[in-house]
Amino acid sequence: MDPVSLVFILLGALLVLFSTEWLSVDVTALLLIAALMLSGLLSPEEALAGFGDATVLTLAALFILAQILVRSGVIRALVGVLAGPGGRRPGRSSEGSGRGLIQRLLSGVTAVSTVTSNTATTAVFLPVMYALSRRTGEHVGRVMMPLAFASILGGSITLIGTSTNLVVSGFLPQLGLEPLGFFELAWVGVPLAVAGLLYLFFVAPRLLPTRESEMEQQVRAYISDLTVAPDSPLVGQTLAQSRLGSDYGLMVVVVRRGERTIYAPEASFRIELGDTLALESDSEGLLAAQDALGLVSRSAEKLSLSGLESEVRLVETVVMPGNELIGRTLREARFRERYGLSVLALHRREKTVERLGGLRVRVGDVLLIQGPETRLRGLGDAFAVLADLTEQQPDGSRAPLAALLFVGALVLAATGLVPLVVALISAVALALALRLISPAEAYRSIEWPVLVLVAAMLAFGAAFQSSGAAEQVAGWLAGTLEPLGGLGALAGVYLFTVLLTQPMSNQAAALVMLPLAVGVAGALGYDPRPFAVTVALAASNSFLTPLEPSCMLVYGPGHYRFADFVRVGGGLTLLTFVLTMLIVPLVWPLTS
């Protein structure tokens, strides 16, 4: 069989597997690499070269740096600034101020997404926006989809805003073109983001559903004992002034001051140094209060003094039948001494005002446990781990250093002093040396399926070129688009890319379309640069289906249906298409 026919067969198989999801994308990608080698389309060295490509290494470094920003509290601090007082936790506000707060946060999502991946940005802001919808009374369905779309809009502004931009830039030299500049796409990306946000502010709310779910997610309420430390801003404040409830969703059940116990303290109660507050809240509220308000767990403090031999993690565990803790208090069982772990909080269906250390453990109790990873493995079958909440517990003391490393790497790359991959890998190496993140957590933060997919599609792109298939398809497209003129050809490339990116991943669609678009430009006598830019923009702006990773994150929480994305995303897709067709030829002329 001739090479061109083989390439078309592989392309058809890819479209089927990507659209049906019979296999995960990384498994499909590995099968593709194997097929390229076994068929002789590429040598093993050529087929595997993508794993060492600068684009793949840049993506890996970005995943790690994004995790460092989350773990150090940089993203949480930024969210706090954007949300303003009371924005982090659910409460109640007027309709007008609530809508303004949502719009401000969506603008912030777009800004953050210019330097972090769309998926990571959506994941970080999702619980914030969910809580905000409860606080303002805005239906969750009118908040979640705009969150995903705002993150996608921000990705079109910089080279690192989305992995698709990096993939396109990395493949351009193979087509004889210069890589994309760090802010080159901003000429189109900024107008798209502004217009897109206006659409999300004023048009999308009229189209978004307000569908109720059959079962809302229940927030697990924990009871925890936290002590007011000397540096706490709460010292001398009344409970009303502290805004523990409105800003953090914390309910003060009991206050213990020396030998004195105050049950259900009033709003006028004044907090003093050394008070131990029995608080009820979800895990996010408890961790946020510890981080920002100088509230400490004495159990965790004692554990830290004993020395930690491995990475500290935070997990939710449920007490299983047969556990030796059942019927005993944590103090009686000498839990901390026996396991080398600290229980920060306990969740139980019935409300209680007992001291955490005095509660007798029952089957089904959920414990929030912190400690070294090696010790957590020693809990055994008597505890079932429900979730790993380590990322909810940032180390704020490392935030300035983490931000400095990340911004420094971006400045070096944006000014052209060093290549982007060099700047990012150097930042990761320094972060590991300074222990901003452990090697184990760095490896866990990498989205390996994305890297495998990109490496495989780079190999397929090379086979698409070398076999002559790209030239053949480009010739057919050129003949079809030639009567439409330069702008018509550009529009055809945009629409074809948008169509292709629905069943395929954005990166895969871009790598299939890029050589075709460049070939069409060459055949028609146009500059290939605007066609390459158009492919990057069209592949990134995927609003029509929930198959884009950011959209998949909000699909469940927003109670959406597939048609909701077509209805709301259709208008946004049309808007981005029109603006792209107006701006691209002005910035990158079709003819030199």
Automatic annotation (TrEMBL):
MF (Gene Ontology): monoatomic cation transmembrane transporter activity
Membrane-topology descriptor: Multi-pass membrane protein
Q: For the RCK C-terminal domain, which residue ranges apply?
A: 211-296, 300-385
InterPro entries found in the cross-reference section? Cit_transptr-like_dom (IPR004680), DASS-Related_Transporters (IPR051679), RCK_C (IPR006037), RCK_C_sf (IPR036721)
Protein's UniProt name:
SLC13 family permease
**A Gene Ontology biological process annotation?**
potassium ion transport
User: PROSITE patterns recorded for this chain?
Assistant: RCK_C
Q: Which organism is it from?
A: Deinococcus radiophilus
Which controlled-vocabulary keywords does the entry list? Membrane, Repeat, Transmembrane, Transmembrane helix, Transport
